[in-house]
Fold this sequence. Notes:
The protein is built from eight helices and eight strands. It has 282 residues and is of the alpha/beta class. The longest helix is centred in the C-terminal third of the chain and has 43 residues, at 239-281.
Amino acid sequence: MKKFYEFKNITSSDADLYVYGEIVSERDDWFGSESDVVITEFKEELDSLGNIKNLNMYINSPGGDVFAASTMISILNRLKQNGTTINAYVDGLSASAASFLMMVADHINLYKNSVVMVHKPMSIAIGNVNDMQKTIDALNKIEDSVMMPMYMGKAKTSENEIKRLIDEETWLNASDMDKYFNVTLLDEEKVAVASIKSNLFKNYKNVPEFIKNSLENKENSPKNEENEPVLSENEPKTSENEANLEENVQNNQSKEREIKAKLGLIRNSLIIKNMKERGEDK
C-alpha cells in the first residue's frame, strides 16, 4: 500500500508535506510478507529534514486512524517547539482524523471549495459487554483528551457548539469553517476531492452529494488494480469463476475485519491503561 503522506520540495529552510489519502498506523498488508509501521517512518523522514523554518502541509484525506493522527500531532508539535512554522492547506477534503490533525498548524488555509468534516470517533469492537464498554471508554477519552483540545485551540465559538458539530457529523464548507474556526480563506479553488477513494465513506452518514457522485464515477470506471486477480487470456470468465472469486474476496474481507477488530480491542485497552497511568502520575 502506498504511504498516505509524502515530503516534497525540500530545501534547507522549507518543506512540503502532502497528506493525501487515508491515514493509517500500519500498511494494510494482512496477507503479505510484512506490515511496516508508517508512523515510525513518518517520524524518521521528518527528523531527517533537520531544522526547517516552514512546513507546508497539504491535506486531501477522508480521515482514518485516530491514534495515527494523534501521534502525528505529537511529532509535529515537537517540530513547532523547535521553531518551525506549520502552514496547512485543505486542497480538497479534510475529514474525520484529518480534521483535527490540521489543527496542529499555526495557520490553516482553505480554498473556496475546501470541505472539512468533523464527527465522533469510531471503532470496531467484538466480544462481550465488558469488551464493548472498554471500546466506548476509549472513544470517549479520545474525543475529550485528543480531539476537543485540538479543535478548541482554533475555535471561535463555545465548546458546546463544537461538540454539537461533532455529534451531528457536520460537513463544513470554507465559509462555515470561517464561522467556527480561525482560518484563512483563499480566493481560489482546488479540485482534489475527486482523487480520494476510500471505504471510510461508507461509515459516514451525511456525505455531500458531489462527493458521492465522485465515488460512484470511480466505481463505474474501468479497473486495473494491481491487487485485483486477473484471469489468463485463455481462461474463460465463466459465472463459476466469478462466483469463486467473489467468495474468496468476501472471505478475505471478513478475516481482515475480524483481525482489525481484535487488534482494535487490544489497542483500546492499552490506550485506556496509559491514560489512567498518566492521570495517576499527575
